[in-house]
Write a sequence for this structure.
């Protein structure tokens, strides 16, 4: 196949993908217009800061206060306080960031805003999510206590909020929404006029962003959380060799998902073209698809991370694998199991030689 033929096929595939996105956005827009015409509400700008599903209660209070004859200045002050209170209710107090519920509402709000506007493929390609799952929290909690475990999470969140990866993205004009996603999971929504599916250094841009975050977090020295030169920690690993130069660092696994791929994936979203679903249901299907895909990829990334440690010949990685087993008993069983496998392999080789 010539280079020009290959390029034409690529262009044709891109045109097909764009037409699918356009058709499904048109379906969403029609459903949204119908829903609004059936019960349209005019929201003050300040209420529009909230995701769609959180607006109704505030709108009700706004209409009530307005009927009492409050001035526009008084109304603005009252509603601003109400919006702030709602945002605070949806905050993860441990880290002073939005919680998992607000994360979902924010994604709903962003997709809803895209549907409200004239179709902009660049903005569609610029909306994606990264889910992070912290590695090693259970080990920190078990070995040094939950206070150190919370500190471990706080330092990772601080890096997500104020680290150089986030600052670099924001300097490029990318909006970064950082949120808790329950327990030791966190998420980042990326949005703006940027192509997150563009190939950079052999990866989708959003995959490359995930890699940047993982590299930055893995540079956080957490040896003060688990100090393996401490006699009490050494006792807990009695019988297991601790490498002299081992240093515990933070790490996260992660998975990504793009709005663009959800819109063209018929396995995830055949209902997007269905007339039987109303707009809210269609929107919910999109959001569920984003979270499910990123979560699935995050689990795959975690499995790959653990497997890489288990199969590594590097002593430090091998010991980190033991640490992540969470307790000495499990670690010793893992070592014994590994030694038994080696002995069985040696016996098998000897039997083959004897049979010859």
């Amino acid at each position: 196949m010539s280079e020009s033929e290959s390029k034409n096929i690529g262009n044709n595939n891109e045109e097909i993908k764009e037409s699918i996105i356009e058709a499904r956005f048109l379906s969403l827009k029609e459903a949204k217009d119908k829903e609004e015409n059936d019960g349209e509400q005019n929201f003050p700008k300040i209420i529009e800061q909230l995701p769609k599903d959180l607006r109704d209660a505030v709108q009700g209070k706004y209409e009530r206060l307005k009927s009492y004859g409050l001035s526009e200045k008084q109304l603005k002050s009252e509603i601003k306080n109400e919006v702030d209170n709602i945002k605070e209710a949806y905050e993860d107090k441990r880290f002073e960031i939005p919680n998992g519920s607000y994360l979902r509402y924010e994604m709903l709000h962003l997709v809803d805003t895209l549907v409200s506007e004239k179709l902009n493929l660049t903005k569609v390609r610029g909306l994606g999510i990264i889910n992070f799952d912290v590695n090693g929290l259970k080990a920190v909690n078990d070995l040094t206590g939950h206070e150190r475990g919370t500190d471990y999470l706080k330092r990772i969140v601080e890096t997500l909020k104020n680290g150089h990866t986030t600052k670099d993205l924001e300097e490029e004009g990318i909006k970064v929404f950082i949120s808790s996603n329950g327990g030791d999971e966190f998420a980042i929504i990326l949005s703006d006029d940027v192509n997150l599916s563009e190939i950079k250094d052999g990866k989708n841009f959003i995959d490359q962003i995930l890699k940047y975050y993982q590299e930055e977090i893995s540079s956080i020295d957490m040896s003060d959380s688990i100090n393996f030169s401490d006699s009490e920690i050494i006792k807990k690993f009695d019988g297991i060799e601790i490498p002299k130069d081992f240093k515990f660092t933070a790490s996260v696994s992660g998975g990504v998902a793009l709005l663009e791929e959800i819109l063209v994936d018929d396995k995830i979203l055949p209902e997007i073209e269905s007339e039987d679903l109303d707009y809210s249901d269609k929107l919910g299907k999109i959001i569920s698809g984003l979270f499910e895909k990123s979560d699935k990829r995050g689990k795959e990334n975690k499995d790959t991370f653990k497997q890489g440690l288990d199969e590594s010949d590097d002593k430090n990685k091998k010991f980190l694998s033991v640490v992540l087993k969470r307790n000495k008993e499990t670690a010793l069983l893992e070592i014994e199991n590994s030694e038994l496998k080696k002995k069985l392999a040696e016996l098998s080789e000897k039997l083959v030689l004897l049979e010859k």
Summary: The CA atoms of residues 65 and 239 lie 70 Å apart. The domain at 3-40+90-296 is CATH 3.30.70.270 (Alpha-Beta Plaits). The longest strand covers residues 128-134.
